[in-house]
């Protein structure tokens, strides 16, 4: 059994079938750092539900935190169930959404998940069609995160988010990775993650959202096409588009 983490999949069925599924073996877990694509998986050959049925037949598990490009009406309508100690939306028995502020135990390691992010292109989107206000966290979700981290004495092994702390965005800009500056619409979440970083002891922090791949300082990794080993951070392969 292996646990991997990767970046935004954006409901790309062809990419999944060609570059992700072939590397996963019996019992493996793949964790997606947001923008999994709930509500957008309709493809040329499969409908969204047919694609989920296909995943349900696979011997691996897919877990993801939400990004900003999800249909939250659909996502939040799935049944809630426990998985490895934390609350999830169960899309299929092996396809699960890691709810914001929850913690999970994987191979005796603790993973804290907190999805959400801001759509820089929201002005070109239509609410309820391809944009939802729930992309940004609620006060209840922030509070759940505080409570769960307090239960773990602010010590976890891994943090999984879609966006990242404000200071990390500033750092990526100094590296000229082509990332965007902090958006006003996301600032509250970025500052919240700043606080989480300052208070929490962790081994590795993985996030997506910024459409690049790089190992950063403070054991942080921005993900897009890289598939990395959760425990070591080692790149297993790059997805090719």
Q: Give the biggest sheet.
A: 8 strands, mixed
State the secondary-structure class. alpha/beta
Determine the fraction of residues in helical runs and give it as a percent range: 10-25%
CA-based shape: globular
> Which strand order does the major sheet show?
4-5-6-3-2-1-13-14
- Cα distance, first to last residue? 27 Å
What sequence of helices (H) and strands (E) makes up the elements?
EHEHEHEEEEEHEHHEEEEE
Number of strands: 14
Q: Helix count, per DSSP?
A: 6
Unreliable parts: none
Strand content: 25-35%
Mean pLDDT: 95
Rg value: 16 Å
Overview in brief:
With 241 residues, this protein is an alpha/beta fold. Helices cover 23% and strands 25% of the residues. The strands form 2 sheets. The protein has an 8-stranded mixed beta sheet with strand order 4-5-6-3-2-1-13-14. Strands 7-8-9-10-12-11 form a 6-stranded mixed beta sheet, covered by helices on one side.
Description:
The longest helix is centred in the middle third of the chain and has 13 residues, at 139-151. Strands 4-5-6-3-2-1-13-14 form an eight-stranded mixed sheet. β11 (214-215) and β12 (220-222) form a beta hairpin. The protein is α/β, with parallel strands linked by helices and 241 residues long. Helices cover 23% and strands 25% of the residues. It has helices at residues 13-20, 48-56, 72-75, 139-151, 166-174, 187-199; strands spanning 3-6, 29-33, 61-65, 80-83, 86-92, 95-98, 102-106, 109-114, 158-161, 204-207, 214-215, 220-222, 226-229, 235-238. The protein starts with a strand and ends with a strand.
């Amino acid at each position: 059994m292996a646990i991997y983490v990767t970046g935004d999949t954006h409901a790309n069925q062809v990419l999944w079938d060609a570059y992700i599924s072939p590397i996963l073996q019996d019992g493996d877990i793949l964790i997606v750092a947001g923008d999994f694509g709930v509500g957008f998986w309709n493809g040329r050959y499969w409908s969204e539900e047919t694609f989920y049925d296909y995943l349900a037949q696979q011997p691996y598990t897919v877990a993801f935190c939400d990004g900003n490009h999800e249909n939250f009406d659909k996502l939040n309508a799935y049944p809630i169930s426990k998985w490895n100690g934390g609350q999830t939306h169960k899309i299929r028995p092996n396809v699960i959404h890691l709810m914001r502020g929850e913690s999970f135990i994987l191979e005796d390691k603790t993973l804290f998940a907190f999805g959400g992010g801001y759509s820089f292109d929201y002005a070109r989107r239509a609410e309820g069609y391809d944009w939802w206000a729930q992309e940004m966290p609620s006060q209840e979700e922030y509070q759940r995160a505080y409570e769960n981290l307090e239960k773990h004495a602010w010590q976890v092994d891994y943090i999984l988010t879609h966006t990242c702390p404000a200071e990390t965005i500033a750092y990526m800009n100094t590296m000229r990775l082509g990332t965007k500056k902090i958006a006003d619409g996301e600032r509250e979440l970025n500052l919240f993650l700043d606080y989480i970083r300052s208070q929490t002891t962790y081994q590795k922090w993985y996030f997506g959202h910024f459409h690049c791949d790089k190992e950063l300082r403070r054991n942080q990794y921005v993900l897009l096409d890289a598939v990395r080993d959760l425990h070591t951070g080692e790149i297993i392969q790059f997805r090719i588009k």
